[in-house]
Amino acid sequence: MTMISTVNWSDMKRTARLGGFAAAAVFADMVASLPASAQQPEPWQMNFQEAHSSLMEQMVTFHNFLLYLIFAISLFVLGLMLYAVFRFSEKRNPTPSRTTHNTMIEVLWSVIPIFLLVVIGLFSLPLLFNSDDTVDADLTVKVIGRQWYWSYEYPDHGDFTFDAFLIPDEEIKGDQVRLLSTDENLVLPIGKKVRVLVTSSDVLHAFAMPALGAKVDAVPGRTNEIWFDIDEVGMYYGQCSEICGAGHAFMPIAIQAVTQADFDAWVIEARERFAEAEDNLAPRPVRNELDDAAQNNASHRTSMTAHPSANLR
Question: Where are the alpha helices (DSSP H) in the chain?
Fold first, then answer.
């Protein structure tokens, strides 16, 4: 004989719920302890990257406010147009009015736009001033755009310098990102105000980091400056945003945000690894494949100029 015991389903459901809550709590703790996921463009992305600096959070707030304002204005104008089409059609208004002036309407269409511009200014001007406020920075980093890679200098931490090149497709491994990962990262601490000095050694470039609200031109012979802070540990990716030649699409920016303790340890290691000998006068390195492509293009242009009749054959 088979013995069948009575099952208390209410107790089982209660236990399952408690177990589910416990698992959810453990998962939430694990997620909270993980570093920020890599901030990079996503397929079919329709909005900004997630903001990870106080400056970018202000930009997103201002952007969303403007969207609501523009949407309301567009609806109002559309309503006026539809009303005019319906109310003043030939069928409903066979004898049109010859009125040319209306004091109230003229006052309203002057005062309301001025009021809206003042409201926008109250939000935009503080953001503009804040984005330009680089005083009281906790550390300074110098970024130099070159054809077609970036050089980084740490003047506050021993003044060492290193270059960061794109990792070729055939060398991508692990969690590295195609066209975004570099062989060396710009390492920065979280929770600190970072001033970034940006310049170029050859042509126009642009330093752009969307998740941090940073974008500024790198101009030869001129130093521009921006600032940002980073709120979470993780990888943040950007790219050169100014067409700068054959290798423009292949000079990404990779920022590795770490804790202050990890940053201090990295600085000690980096001072030794990137130390330059006093007699080292070697020129800056250039990727061979990009150099070859540029030389081939230049040779082709020279050939076409020297032998214009070749175009007619």
Answer: 9-33, 54-87, 103-131, 260-273, 288-306
Instruction: Decide: helix, strand or coil at residue 254.
Output: strand
> For the ranges 3-12, 224-233, 248-257, 295-304, which has the lowest average pLDDT?
3-12
Residue 291 tokens read as: 């150099």
Domains of the chain, with CATH numbers?
54-89+106-131 (no CATH), 139-275 (2.60.40.420)
Closest C-alpha among 141, 163, 140 to residue 274:
163
Distance CA 15, CA 261 (A): 43
pTM: 0.73
Whether residue 215 contacts residue 194, with contact meaning beta carbons closer than 8 Å, is answered with no
Residues 42-53 as b or e (16 or more Cβ within 10 Å = b): eeeeeeebebbb
**pLDDT value for 99:** 79
- Bridge partners (DSSP) listed for residue 140: 195
Q: Are 147 and 203 in contact (CB under 8 A)?
A: yes
Q: How far, in Å, CA of 192 to CA of 230, rounded?
A: 7
Q: Which of 28, 17, 120, 10 is nearest to 65 (CA)?
A: 120
